[in-house]
Amino acid sequence: MRDTIELLELGLKANFWNYIERVTGKRSIKRFISQGLLLTFLSGFPSIWGVILRRQTYRKVLGSMGENCFIENNVRFRVPGSIFLGDRVFIDENACLDATYPSSEIRLGNDVRIGRNSVLKASIGKIIVHDGVHISRSVHLGGGGGIEIGKNSLLGDKVELISSQHVHDDPSMPIKLQGSRFGKIVIEENVWLGAMAIVLPGVQIGNGSVIGAGAIVTKDIPSDSVATGVPAKVTRKRGVPS
């Protein structure tokens, strides 16, 4: 019985430190308390007063924060020291920016907009969002293999960029133990991804392309193309009648 209690205590202690490192990026009680008090206390403040308070104080814990940023209520930051915001960034309510590790990064350029309930998770990679990108509601960016989104691109509601996938070749082993494959996703400039489009690892979408709603993109798409379907295929060039 005593051995069982000691094992439980050890497990609880390990989980506690893992949680602190997961949230802050360091095994530091001081950082956990100060960061937690700041982010938790201010995250729920509604209205313009909350926006003003967060704009003034969050720069103390984020990697960097430009001028005139607006962060709505209940936005969650994990490992905030690895999250960098440009000027005039707008993050709508209930979004989550999760750098995951101190060596990972989330970088948002100037005039980037993140819609409500969206999740940007760097994992072991980096998520780079260039100037003027608009990300709509409930978008998921899984950055394990790296994600880069070019200037002035648009991501519709519930778009998913998935830059890693589970290895599943060995049927005798649990899939979760077989590791993952990674491939950087590159969305070039002035691209529009329609609602619920999915982009898989290693794909590059060229400048000025349009991806139809619900499409699943498994291969590169050339510039100025319109692609639809599952899997997505180029149906025409922009400006050329279908």
Structure description:
The longest helix is centred in the first third of the chain and has 23 residues, at 2-24. It is built from 3 helices and 25 strands. The strands form 4 sheets. The protein has a 9-stranded mixed beta sheet with strand order 2-5-8-11-14-19-22-24-25. The chain has a 7-stranded parallel beta sheet with strand order 1-4-7-10-13-18-21, with no helix packed on it. Helix 2 packs antiparallel against helix 3 (47-57). Mean pLDDT is 87; it is low at 1-9. The chain is globular and about 60 Å long. The chain folds into 2 domains: 1-43; 46-237, UDP N-Acetylglucosamine Acyltransferase, domain 1. The chain has helices spanning 2-24, 29-43, 47-57; strands at 64-65, 70-71, 76-78, 83-85, 90-91, 96-98, 105-108, 113-114, 119-121, 126-129, 134-135, 140-142, 147-149, 154-155, 160-162, 164-166, 180-182, 185-187, 192-193, 198-199, 204-205, 210-211, 216-217, 225-228, 233-237. 20% of the residues lie in helices and 29% in strands. The chain starts with a helix and ends in a 5-residue tail after the last strand. A hairpin with a 4-residue loop joins strand 24 and strand 25. The chain is of the alpha/beta class and 242 residues long.
Write the layout of secondary structure elements.
Blueprint: H1 2-24, H2 29-43, H3 47-57, E1 64-65, E2 70-71, E3 76-78, E4 83-85, E5 90-91, E6 96-98, E7 105-108, E8 113-114, E9 119-121, E10 126-129, E11 134-135, E12 140-142, E13 147-149, E14 154-155, E15 160-162, E16 164-166, E17 180-182, E18 185-187, E19 192-193, E20 198-199, E21 204-205, E22 210-211, E23 216-217, E24 225-228, E25 233-237
Parallel strand pairs: 1-4, 2-5, 3-6, 4-7, 5-8, 6-9, 7-10, 8-11, 9-12, 10-13, 11-14, 12-15, 13-18, 14-19, 15-20, 18-21, 19-22, 20-23, 22-24
Antiparallel strand pairs: 16-17, 24-25
Helix pairs in contact: 2-3
